[in-house]
Amino acid sequence: MRIVVLVGLPGSGKSTYLERLGAAGLSSDSIRQLLADDESDQTIHDRVFETLRYLLRQRLALARPVTYIDATNLTLQERRPYIAIGAAYGCQVEALFFDTPLAVCRERNARRARVVPSEALAKMEERLVPPTTAEGFTRVSRVSDVDPPASRP
Ligand SMILES: Nc1ncnc2c1ncn2[C@@H]1O[C@H](COP(=O)(O)OP(=O)(O)OP(=O)(O)O)[C@@H](O)[C@H]1O
Ligand SMILES: [Mg+2]
After folding, report:
1. 72 lines ligand 1 (CB under 6 A)
2. pLDDT band at 149 (very low <50, low <70, confident <90, very high)
3. Hey, how many other C-beta atoms are within 10 angstroms of the C-beta on 26?
4. Which ligand sits nearest to residue 18's alpha carbon?
5. pLDDT of 35-83, one tens digit each?
6. Ligand 2 centroid, distance to 62 Cα (angstroms)
7. Ligand 1 atom with least separation from CA of 114
């Protein structure tokens, strides 16, 4: 079993990547929608991530081979729970880093339906810490625009 933690700013292409892969990740935005009928409700953060972790544990209990965590996962603090859950269930935890330049995220963000405010995006870039194996990931891969999902293992 594997947990794949996606890491990247809003607009970096995480959900699009999963869509192209034909994989359904556990998405914090989808959970916001399920819980509060609003995919951008930022007032229920703790409940959203508690639900996400609950769903992840249920999938691992069912021995699903791979679970993608589709959230920004910008900091060690946000990523640590998945490493701990992986250890508890004896599964590999990998990071997939969407190293998309801020300017590109900004441009894509401006063109889509759910627009993240520009200042919020800048603050998030300041918080972003690239994932490393030192924090407990078995493997860290980078996704750039030149990597089509089909070419990745
Ligand atoms: N590789 C790409 N090339 C061109 N456009 C892209 C690419 N990846 C994503 N986009 C476009 O950028 C926008 C944002 O992408 P996406 O929703 O996948 O970002 P995200 O990382 O999931 O953001 P969020 O964290 O806010 O959910 C979408 O409109 C999408 O169509
Ligand atoms: Mg997304």
Report:
1. yes
2. low
3. 19
4. 1
5. 999 988 889 999 999 999 999 999 999 999 999 999 999 999 999 999 9
6. 25
7. 26
pLDDT at residue 146 tops 60: no
Which structure tokens are listed for 39?
A: 């995919």
Tokens of 131: 């994932």
Pick the residue whose CA is nearest to atom 24 on ligand 1.
Answer: 10
**Alpha carbon of 41 to ligand 2 centroid (Å):** 14
Topology of domain 2-23+67-151, per CATH? Rossmann fold (3.40.50)
Residue type, 142: R
pTM: predicted TM-score of the whole model, two decimal places: 0.93
Write out 79-136 in H/E/C secondary structure: HHHHHHHHHHHCCEEEEEEECCCHHHHHHHHHHCCCCCCHHHHHHHHHHCCCCCHHHC
